[in-house]
Amino acid sequence: MKNSRFYILFFFLIAVVSVNAQKNGSDREKYNFNYGWKLNIGDVEEAKQADFNDKKWKDVNLPYAWNQSEAFRLDITQLSTGIAWYRKTFQLPKDSNNKKVFVEFEGVRQMGEIYINGTFIGRHENGVMAFGFDLTPYVKPYPQQNVIAVKTDNDWKYKEKSSGSGFQWNNNNFNANYGGIPKNVFLHLKPKVYQTLPLYSTLGTTGTYVYATNFDIANKKAVVNVASQVKNELSKSITTQLKVSVQDREGKLIATFVGDSFAIAPNETKDLTAMKALDNLNFWSWGYGYLYTVTSELLVDTKSVEKVTIQTGFRKTKFEKGMVYLNDRVIMMKGYAQRTSNEWPSVGMSVPAWLSDYSNSLMIKSNANLVRWMHVTPWKQDIESCDRVGLIQAMPAGDSEADVQGRRWEQRTELMRDAIIYNRNNPSIIFYESGNESISEDHMKEMLAIKNTFDPQGGRAIGSREMLDSKVAEYGGEMLYINKSARIPFWATEYSRDEGLRKYWDEFTPPFHKEGTGGTAHTNVNGSKVADASAYNHNQDTHAKEDVARWYDYWEMRPGTGERVNSGGVNIIFSDSNTHYRGQENYRRSGEVDAMRIPKDNFYAHQVIWNGWVDTDTPDLHIVGHWNYENGVTKDITVISTADVVELFVNNESLGKGIQDKRFLFTFKKVSFKPGIIKAIGYDKTGKKVCENQIQTAGKPFGIKLSTIERPGGTLANANDLALVQVEVVDEKGNRCPTALNEINFDVQGQGTFIGGIAQGPDNYIGSKKLPVECGVNRIFVKSIDIAGNIKILATSDSLKSDAITIKTIKTDIEKVSNTLPSENLSSFTEKGPTPATPSFSKTRTAVAIIAANTDSNQADAVKSYDDNELTQWSYGKTGKAMIEYELEREANINQVVLKLAGWRSKKYPIRISIDNKKVFEGFTPLSLGYVTLDFEPTKGKKVQIELMATAKDSDGINLVEITGKVDQAGINKEGKTIEQLPIIEVEFYEPIR
């Protein structure tokens, strides 16, 4: 009897221990697996074996691309490629026995083969997406040692093992090749009943999906939903349910709720759900990265066994009437097409998470609201960073610049599927990009089906570049030109492709860069020729003006300007990039900041012209350039402003009002330099002062000034954290000397190492401890070691007073299985505040609809000139006077005609416009990025005639050449015969607001 009681008690205790082992084990499910790796460049096949001796290999902490030190020293085609091995010896945590063990790689370039204790686990080959494997059958329990080995191959021509097909996006024009393991790695420990990971291609699982529905923005309400895929690997059926808790940004618990119970059989996978209506919500918005912590707790027989924590935000979107709505407010897309590598000199893409925040928040500070990552899916670190800083993202899958077929198309759909599953909880992603070039309608249907299957509630639009007449795409937009739509939003996926080195102020400042010099007769990386690349080689003055001029075409057709509108666009690129180039340097200089994120004049130009959701919220101005010239210099001064009138002063003497062009550009001709202060004041239409700015002449170079930009909370002593050290040449009063080009010597001592910066010169000064300031300023990187202490930086230069600065590093958890995640304790940026409740634009004019068109040639095609389809057009098809007459829906007081004519960037058409036979306009149409607006005195009538008076004139006023060397004909048919036949793609008529 006693024995039977003992056994009953024994088995009862075993059952309790078994349940509590799942309940009371470490609450941590996800570990940082970045520390303690070994690296060997070259193929050592024996390295897969657990007993291989890797003591002579290089010690590295991840993320670490084995060729990252070449970033910006070599051009994209010359980056080293080949095989490299990474190895790591580790123990599982003490409480890991009887748990599932998964490894998650955020990405390996291009291919990664994973071995555990000598056993091949699996291979991943697309070079972009996260993947993971179940290590449970192969790992040894604590305290035994395990060895993970990863063979990587970043060959540009790498072929998929199963099909022999290459990957379209592994392309040396666009996708900088930082090889090995350039992204984070994590270890996951889970019980035998667990919520799966969102790693579909290798694990076949979809993870946890958090989304909101039933939004009531005005009353701050929404229904929060959680759907989590649960797998039962026990040998018995169980009853499970989800318990969800929601914490706000300050960590306050605002809600808990429980979903329905479900039975799950052994080895069965099932989706569990829970939902609750919440109020007093803060909605994620532009520049307002308000995030909630949603914890999905798995209950088995009402006992908690596992928790999955997700940081996410809630926002409402809508895509209609040619516009994008965020939280019930229209937002015009203003931003940058940035390389997904988002790289930095000497370290490539492998930077700490805080530095991603710093870079991405600068886009917000320039008043951008959108980043369109180019060609491939960004890594999770950048995606989560955009969540925190409040930056909308357009997320591609993978592409170069063409639709493809067969296996290469399947690779693209698989990547899109995996990327959506992995990133669907990130609120900053609002667009999914299916191609960097138009794709077939059938392919667009496939992409839409993937979105609707795996992210049906995410509030995202899926589309592709162009797709102007697609019935399936949910957004579109060309690369270089402006589009308008009354249906889905059209925004430019790239515009203003010009380049300019930060070193060059203008033609009057050393080193006296004359506009257009450098890179003519340039050979592109793909071998194509650009006969004249001068249009891509600006100084800061002209680069800033070009950016503003190119934006004007989009602003002119913004929401509020009619039924057909443009929804904005993204400037290529934000930071100078280690990709294809057209100038003397071997990297792309189109950035609004340089490679070390030092702003150029372009940055401040965008800060002014993008200050608002659609219309300008706060008038502002920026004086282009500096005020430190030699005596006798006379030059034109440009002020960029959203004011109506701008007045310029030199030492309080007024030079009058500026000549306004393209709305935001104000030019003051032949201003003579006089040391002192140059000041600009902006006024509104009533003459009221609304903005002001000034620049002061600096004195002669006197000394060096050092400052730092560091991780919030301090630099971590983890042998991987970076700090930016800024060096300025200043006068005796501490003012930066904007024309200084002094060479600076750096000495780094203590608990850190010198990494370096970038400047114009041999090897772009990469890795050099001597480099010059440019425009009086530059930056270098220093890197922590794994011992906490002080990093001392000394900067010296001939004839300048030296300076020194100290960075204190902080001890952190650098165990091989670490509790400290890379982005831990990084705060959100909320400076712009919640979505305003006020209207985002004012209506500027009234569109008058066309009900019919009459012409004596190609009458059947006449409707194509006003059908809201920019891939169709009408043109006069016979000799004689080309003319078409439009009948309006009503008699209207017309004062504007808006036209899109074929050849818009290179052809000027001499036309006459009459309203009810009264001439209201006669002259040449201007060049544009697509649409032109012709103004005249308001004239009442119901019929409008447009006729071509003579042959169109050619012009190279807007010189746009693709990297391939192709010159886009901008709507001109292949034969070019439409030029003399008034080719109208779209026409619109407007009257003033009554």
Automatic annotation (TrEMBL):
Ranges for domain DUF4982 come to: 633-691
- Annotated Glycoside hydrolase family domain residues: 717-806
Domain (Beta-mannosidase-like galactose-binding): residue spans on this chain: 84-171
Which residue ranges does the record assign to the Glycoside hydrolase family 2 immunoglobulin-like beta-sandwich domain? Answer: 214-315
Checking InterPro entries in the record gives: Beta-gal/glucu_dom_sf (IPR036156), Beta-mannosidase-like_N2 (IPR054593), DUF4982 (IPR032311), Galactose-bd-like_sf (IPR008979), GH (IPR017853), GH2_Domain-Containing (IPR051913), Glyco_hydro2_dom5 (IPR040605), Glyco_hydro_2_cat (IPR006103)
Q: From the UniProt annotation, give the residues forming the signal peptide.
A: 1-21
One GO process term, biological-process aspect? carbohydrate metabolic process
**Which of UniProt's keywords are assigned here?**
Glycosidase, Hydrolase, Signal
Residue ranges of domain Glycoside hydrolase family 2 catalytic in the record: 319-456
Q: In the UniProt record, does the keyword Hydrolase occur?
A: yes
The GO terms this record gives for MF are: hydrolase activity, hydrolyzing O-glycosyl compounds
Query: Which family does the entry's similarity section mention?
Result: Belongs to the glycosyl hydrolase 2 family.
Protein name (database record): Beta-galactosidase
